[in-house]
């Protein structure tokens, strides 16, 4: 979220200083934002360069294809040379991190992995699955119809279209797209300089007001069905998982290797143990750790292609924590070398605070 806001600040800085004669502050602010992004969220740092590309493309088209560029509203005052200077300053500022080019290229080495995309929901393409995110697709259609009838700047069109495409390819880009897809609306609302919002709405046509109303309703529905349910979640860690780890902690020293899956591993690690996996999925691919593709092995276990006996023969786990959603939960009772110490459905006196689809999964230790 913070890195997304920093990217939005970068675009707003381009818009603000591009309209002023003194544009020198932009040459200090954008590299500073680049340093913050690469150190706070290196995987998103390439976007600090990507958001500059629509402005570079628009400036290049204005110079090389003036007849085509006249179909769009006039661009901001940054010249092509100034934009290239900003691009290379942002690029150079990205080197100011503890890991150098490894951090800058992190996303290029981690994205596109079939196993990660097959398990992690936020890496999946945007689709109509229940109510979550489904409202964005009608928003995109309505905005496309509205923007097609307006004379917008080419840079804003490219920025909105590019981030919308990113959100269609990966759910994790939805928040970024929401900001930048709506940005041309601000350009439309400012076509009457100095006018208040009410006066600008009065100056718009009845059809434009209907479209804006439809966009507002769809966005409110998106917030209601996608954001609010997450805010209502009262806890992060399953009480059954915490209870299982408490039992293990009374019998095993810190640093003991433990099998725990992608979702449970972070808490097990937090409690001082060494889990098989944690939520840093990319780190467990061979492209980053240069040893073994643990995530591919994990996916084989989860899909049942790798049996419990064959998988456990590769490791010497003294403890295993499994949840009801994975095959090992059902296979381990038939493995001779392990004894069931805790079963939340049999031993726990806790009651899950959630109900329905969000009820806690059973845990076995």
What does this structure look like?
This protein is mainly α and 365 residues long. Helix content is 56%, strand content 3%. The chain contains 22 helices and 5 strands. The chain has helices spanning 2-17, 26-40, 46-50, 53-64, 66-69, 80-93, 101-104, 106-110, 114-119, 136-148, 154-169, 174-181, 183-189, 197-203, 206-231, 239-249, 265-270, 286-289, 294-303, 308-313, 327-331, 344-347, and strands spanning 257-259, 274-275, 319-320, 322-323, 363-364. A 3-stranded parallel β-sheet has the order 2-1-3. The protein has a two-stranded antiparallel ribbon with strand order 4-5. Helix 17 links the parallel strand 1 and strand 2 (274-275). Helix 1 (2-17) packs antiparallel against helix 2 and helix 4 packs across helix 11. The longest helix is centred in the middle third of the chain and has 26 residues, at 206-231. The two termini are 35 Å apart. The model is unreliable at 350-359 (pLDDT under 50).
């Amino acid at each position: 979220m913070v890195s997304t806001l920093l990217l939005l600040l970068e675009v707003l800085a381009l818009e603000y200083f591009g309209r002023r004669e003194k544009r020198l502050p932009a040459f200090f602010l954008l590299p500073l934002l680049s340093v913050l992004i690469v150190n706070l969220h290196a995987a998103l740092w390439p976007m600090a360069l990507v958001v500059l590309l629509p402005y570079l493309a628009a400036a290049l088209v204005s110079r090389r294809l003036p007849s085509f560029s006249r179909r769009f509203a006039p661009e901001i005052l940054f010249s092509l040379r100034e934009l290239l200077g900003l691009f290379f300053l942002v690029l150079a500022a990205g080197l100011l991190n503890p890991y150098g080019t490894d951090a800058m290229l992190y996303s290029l080495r981690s994205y596109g992995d079939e196993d990660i995309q097959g398990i992690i929901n936020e890496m999946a393409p945007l689709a109509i699955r229940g109510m979550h995110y489904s409202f964005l697709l009608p928003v995109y259609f309505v905005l496309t119809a509205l923007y097609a009838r307006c004379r917008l700047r080419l840079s804003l069109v490219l920025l909105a279209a590019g981030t919308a495409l990113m959100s269609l390819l990966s759910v994790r880009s939805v928040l970024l797209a929401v900001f930048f897809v709506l940005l041309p609306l601000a350009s439309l609302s400012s076509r009457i300089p100095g006018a208040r919002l009410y006066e600008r709405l009065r100056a718009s046509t009845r059809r434009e007001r209907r479209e804006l109303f439809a966009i507002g309703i769809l966005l409110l529905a998106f917030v209601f069905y996608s954001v609010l349910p997450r805010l209502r979640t009262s806890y992060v860690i399953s009480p059954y998982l915490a209870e299982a780890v408490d039992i293990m902690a009374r019998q095993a020293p810190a640093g003991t290797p433990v099998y725990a899956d992608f979702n449970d591993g972070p808490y097990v690690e937090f409690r001082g143990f060494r889990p098989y996996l944690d939520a840093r999925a990319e780190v467990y691919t061979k492209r980053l750790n240069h040893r073994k593709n643990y995530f591919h092995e994990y996916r084989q276990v989860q899909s049942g292609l790798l049996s419990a006996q064959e998988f456990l023969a590769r490791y010497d786990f003294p403890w295993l924590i499994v949840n009801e959603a994975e095959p090992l939960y059902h296979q381990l009772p038939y493995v001779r070398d392990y004894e069931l110490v805790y079963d939340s459905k049999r031993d726990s006196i806790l009651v899950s605070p959630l109900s329905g689809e969000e009820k806690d999964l059973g845990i076995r230790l």
